[in-house]
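stuck on whats below:

***
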Amino acid sequence: MKELKLLYEGNSKIIYGCDVDGHVVIRFKDDATAFYNIKRAIIENKGKMNCRISSMVLGYLNSHGVATHFVEQLNDTDQLCRCAKHMAFEVIVRNVIAGSMAKRLGLDEGLTPENVIFDLCLKSDELGDPLINDHHAVALGLATYDELATIYAISAKINTLLCELFDKAGISLVDFKIEFGRTAVGDLILVDEFTPDTCRLWDKATGERMDKDRFRRDLGHVRETYEEVASRLANILKK
């Protein structure tokens, strides 16, 4: 496959145009960032591990009826993905209280609510990705009420599928963030990666963090932990 041109470079990925119509190549980088790029580092093989993990997870979702942009993994760091117009907000799905929600509401991390919590955040580095509600999203022209209902339903299905998958791997899926987009024909699809950078994963036996919090909180062993997540998922999915 011939890469045509650089379309976008972010903190963790590079997107290239390619010679497959309606598709792009997404390359995962070794860069690690936190706190809106205040903290930065290069972590060896992080791009490879994130590409592998996201390919396994998105492939799993595709095979279970959740439409994603993922088509195939091309090599250690690259994926072929469908084009879609990204919606300017992200959905955060919370099974356990942790991170910003715990801090914002003065709650202890690790509390498990009776309900799954869905948050919407406007994607804006300048504003600090503020929380918004459905009415804000509609008023800003980001989505319709019908689209939001569909997005919540898809997010709930993703959560059910991935909680079961990670549970088999001995990992608790604490929370995760995902983004959606519209295809050229208007279909809503998942257009985000799913990696330890975009979710919280806690080892079920020890409670050890197996995600980006290891970098955020200077816990160390980031690369080794990502490799462990990839290994556990691979072992489950090959059965």
User: Anything to note?
Assistant: The longest strand covers residues 171-182. Residues 193 and 226 are 14 Å apart (CA to CA). The helical segments are 46-63, 99-105, 134-139, 145-168, 213-216, 222-237. The first helix runs from residue 46 to 63.
